[in-house]
Structures
1.
Amino acid sequence: MTRCAGQRSIEVRYAPNGVSEFGEPCLPSVVIMQMSKPESPTPSFQLTGLPASRFAHLATLDAEALARLGVSRVRATSSPGYPCRVSLVDAQIGEELFLLSYAHHDVESPYRSAGPVFVRVDAQERYLAPGEVPAYVRTRVISARAYDERHMMIAAEVCEGERVGELLERLFERPDVDYVQLHNAKPGCYSCEARRAAAAQ
């Protein structure tokens, strides 16, 4: 008979009929075997922000030049409330950001789309470990849109930000899901993208 106790397995062995080979009563022998701790499953997804290089030139433009591009330079008046799509954090009160329309799904598909995004001035790209979900996502209601290799939407769900990791793990169990784009569900604007962890490296 084997019993588990924490990290150990305890095996109790009984002699046949409870007696030794000399016919005397025999107590069971106990063998304790160490068991290795089960490994945590490897996260299936990795979140990525927009590349800083796409917006670096904006810092060199004056208000008139920005206006011609449809870009506004704004200052955060609350935090959270001004989520930067490059650094994947909310700007602090008083920080400057660019507000512009960006083609976050710039693909040859009926689902090609663009929308408003905030980008902090001089924003630095943030590297997130596989499975990591920042507060920038966790504190918001999120709409997840899953796409296949042809950039066609094949699934869409809404959940609390705290459950995004669990939702992404489930979506990436589907072999036809190539990537997932997250949106802030209430305003509907783009947040970030999730790729399979190996593909995001």
2.
Amino acid sequence: MGADVNASSSKLKQTPLHLASAKGLVLVLVALLDAGADYNAVDNAGLHAIHLAAKHDALSVCHFLIESVKVPVDVRDAEGHTPLMWAAYAGHARILRHLISFSCLSLFFVSLLNVSEPLFAARLFEALSYRPSHCLLSPLFS
């Protein structure tokens, strides 16, 4: 009998998938998912693995979760924050650009909801200097 891949820590309630995501360990993530880890698991703050990847600048994990696992890029934590918002709060421009390339509508609505937070707005609009050509909303940010 093997270890429980969905076991969580006693304090933060983070699973091995959360920890691997925060550390950017894609191969560990793959092994955990192959062993049955739940990519929808949340910690005590309602954070999914993709939130932690965005918060900790783990670009390869964000890409893998979105592209291969099909984790929704707009998933919200217990406070209503998306991975894009976590990346903005942490100042991770490359994660912001990557998430923007996957979800233009999410970006538009999230930016409208959070312009009252100066730090978030500044980082978001800085990242908007990169606009993927497939984004139909790009003209709205010009």
3.
Amino acid sequence: MKNVGRSVIWKDRELFKKHIQEYRKEYRKTRILKMKLEVLLHYSNNLLKCAKCGYSENMKALCIDHINAGDNMERTKIGNEYSFYLWLIRNNYPEGYQVLCANCNQIKAYEEKGIKNNCQKSKIDNVTPGLLRKYAPCYKI
């Protein structure tokens, strides 16, 4: 029997730990994507597209949105994306959600925020063309 040095054993153990961590990370990514696909398909009636504009090119740009924006308390209590999809599946896809693309979701949030703030003009609405040219030259006026 050969005498194996301790450093070799520890190196193998560290490599094994690293391998397991990478495997778990990939498994979790795959699991989240599968759950996201399942949830998106359910809430979009198997069409996998935005409820407002019809965008359907990339699943990564689609997300779940509360139809009643004030109702998002469970989302904040549940936590991350994985937990939220799992919660939706385990609760048999509760009513009150829709599929929106990231753009429509942001527009909806902006509009709702404007309504809550008595439709006050935001700072971006007060930006002058000269200021835009200076700080955002790629922005077309």
